[in-house]
Amino acid sequence: xxxxxxxxxxxxxxxxxxxxxxxxxxxxxxxxxxxxxxxxxxxxxxxxxxxxxxxxxxxxxxxxxxxxxxxxxxxxxxxxxxxxxxxxxxxxxxxxxxxxxxxxxxxxxxxxxxxxxxxxxxxxxxxxxxxxxx
Length: 134
Known about the structure:
Layout: H1 14-26, E1 35-38, E2 42-43, E3 49-50, E4 53-55, H2 80-83, E5 89-96, E6 99-109, E7 112-114, H3 116-129
Antiparallel strand pairs: 1-4, 2-3, 5-6, 6-7
């Protein structure tokens, strides 16, 4: 899950921002002890730098989410082994002004397509969690 938002003045750092956003968007209160760390920052399409924070939620059966309907349209999960299967991975090529612009990863899961910044962060996470498999 990649809840996101700008740092509030009361947030001490990127981890505090991520934990607050997770609480606000998903109704999930995590303590800082669940945080594994930060990935390298990545730019969004407007050039703002995003600091992805990785945390362990524990078994999903034990997690109760209360998504904020003003911020979250739908919640779904994708198992790690599904993400690691080559047939569920791909790339999208973009053009700008009639020329090749850039390539981004994409992950497929039934009716869901994970793309954009979420796919970039997913790819960075897979490179860390399963370097020999991804």
